[in-house]
Amino acid sequence: MKNSTSIAIGGFDGMHIGHQKLFSALDKSSTIVVIETGYANLTPKKERENFSHFPILYLELDNIRHLSGEEFISFLRNKFPKLKKIVVGYDFHFGKDRRYSFCDLKTLFLKEDEDGVVEVIDEVTLHGDSVHSHKIRAKLQIGDIEGANAFLGHNYTIKGKVVSGQGIGKKELVATINIEAKEFLMPKEGVYVTLTRIDDEEHFHPSVSFVGHRVTTDGSFAVESHILDGEVLCKERASISFVSFIRENQKFDSMAELKYAIKKDIATASKELKFLQL
Question: What is the pTM for the complete model shown?
Answer without folding.
Answer: 0.93
